């Protein structure tokens, strides 16, 4: 096995973050415990940053695989849950919503639900219509309408 570069190795804090995340299911708790950050805005940014790191994604997959939580195993559990969870006997023993939440969390940890990310172009419009006649105002409205159409097409 070759030597891993600095960017391929997982740090102690990253490992602690992942282990806490898997144990608790809470990103905020994982960041707080691993990085000792308490500011809510920093917690969210830090969690997103950590989860985007390839070495962290790889470590999450390894931990889940070692625990038998492969995507295939989770899919099998989901199939079993869906076919048996609503029987009278099953409903007396477990709460299907809890089991489904656990399976959903497993899929999320495997990034089976990639977010549909779109970058939105945010623009502000400041108009000074003082001293403009009706024709000039109508021309300004026409130009703004064209810009809005272009923006709507870009967002699609």
Poorly predicted tracts of residues: none
State the major sheet: none
How many domains?
3
Helix fraction, binned, reads 55-70%
SSE pattern, N- to C-terminal: HHHHHHHH
Structural class: mainly alpha
Distance between the termini: 47 Å
The overall average pLDDT, rounded, is 77
Task: Annotate the secondary structure layout.
Layout: H1 12-24, H2 27-35, H3 40-51, H4 54-66, H5 71-84, H6 88-93, H7 96-109, H8 134-155
Provide a descriptive summary of the structure in words:
There is one protein chain. This protein has 156 residues and is mainly alpha-helical. It folds into 3 domains: 1-67; 69-116; 118-156. 66% of the residues lie in helices and 0% in strands. The chain starts with 11 loop residues before the first helix and ends with a helix.
Give a concise summary.
This protein is an all-alpha fold and 156 residues long. 66% of the residues lie in helices and 0% in strands.
């Amino acid at each position: 096995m070759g030597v891993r570069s600095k960017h391929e190795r997982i740090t102690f804090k990253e490992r602690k973050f992942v282990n806490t995340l898997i144990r608790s299911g809470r990103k905020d708790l994982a960041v707080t415990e691993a990085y000792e950050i308490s500011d809510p805005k920093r917690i969210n940014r830090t969690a997103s940053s950590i989860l985007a790191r390839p070495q962290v994604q790889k470590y999450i997959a390894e931990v889940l695989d070692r625990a038998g939580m492969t995507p295939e195993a989770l899919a099998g559990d989901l199939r079993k849950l869906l076919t048996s969870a609503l029987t009278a006997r099953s409903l007396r023993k477990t709460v299907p919503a809890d089991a489904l939440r656990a399976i959903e969390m497993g899929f999320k940890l495997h990034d089976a639900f990639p977010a549909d990310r779109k970058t939105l172009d945010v623009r502000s419009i400041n108009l000074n219509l003082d001293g403009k006649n009706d024709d000039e105002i109508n021309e300004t409205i026409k130009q703004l309408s064209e810009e809005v159409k272009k923006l709507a097409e870009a967002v699609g």
